Amino acid sequence: MSETERDVTLNGQAQGPILAVSACLLGESVRYDGTDKRDARVQGLLAPFFQFRPLCPEVGAGLGVPRPPVQLVRREGELRAVGVEDPDLDVTAAIEEFARRFDREDGVDGLVLKARSPSCALGSAPVGESEELADGLFAARVRTRRPWLPCIQEDQLDDLWSRLHFAERVWIGHGLRSGHLGCLRPSWVYRLKGRGPGGIDQDPARSLEEALSRPWAEEEIARQTSFLQDDPALPEAWRERLANAAPEADPARRLGLLLAALAALDGDERGEALFLAFAGLTRSRDEAPAPC
Ligand code: SF4
Known about the structure:
The protein has helices at 3-6, 40-46, 57-60, 92-103, 137-145, 160-177, 181-184, 186-193, 208-212, 217-229, 236-244, 251-265, 270-281, and strands at 9-10, 13-14, 18-22, 51-55, 70-75, 78-83, 110-113, 125-126, 133-134, 151-153. By secondary structure, the chain is an alpha/beta fold. The structure holds iron/sulfur cluster.
């Protein structure tokens, strides 16, 4: 990635939506044994385009570092987090209390969470010795209380469509929350996706990939691109970008460019950040940094 692609700060301040990220993925030594799980995908793919707010539910719950490792178990039908070595150690209430406090935290546009963690995982935490996989306790609470908040695990960032869909939902949510509806022209996105307004969070199964696989998607992108190019309000630099976009380029890239140009047309300086985000996030998997 070039320096230009990384340059999405304005007045020295990071711009863009805020992602709450499992602190261990950011290199903070917060794991039970005092180590971290720094992840190159989080840094390489997301850091240039989003602001990070580290969080560790277990440290936030007051469990300290180092601490006894915990695991999920099912007791009387309920998932609980108990000590791996001492099953009498039950930290469920402490983690849930931290999650309740997080409910009141404003300004978070999405979460990037650690896979397989009994606190953070999204459907990938082992439950005792069984075959069952579940959400970590913190993640489960967030998903129940704020189902509209986009969440992704670090291993899902390997998949182009997963990360693009995540980023798109984060940007749309950010645009809605910050009152810059014009920034993302959601009605246009809905149209492309064949969704009705309000359906975007209720129907996460419908992915951008699915939208772009529609037979008329390519034609719609081309039509909207040409329409935008003729709009006298669009700054010259963006005209050139649209004109230079190779017609054979990945449709996701062209859609990202189009969304960003729409933001620029609205005079929203985040159009630039959005352009760069999509340019970075739609790099092919081979171009993405290898996981550490
Ligand atoms: S609770 Fe989450 S953030 Fe904290 S160390 Fe475990 S996986 Fe990382």
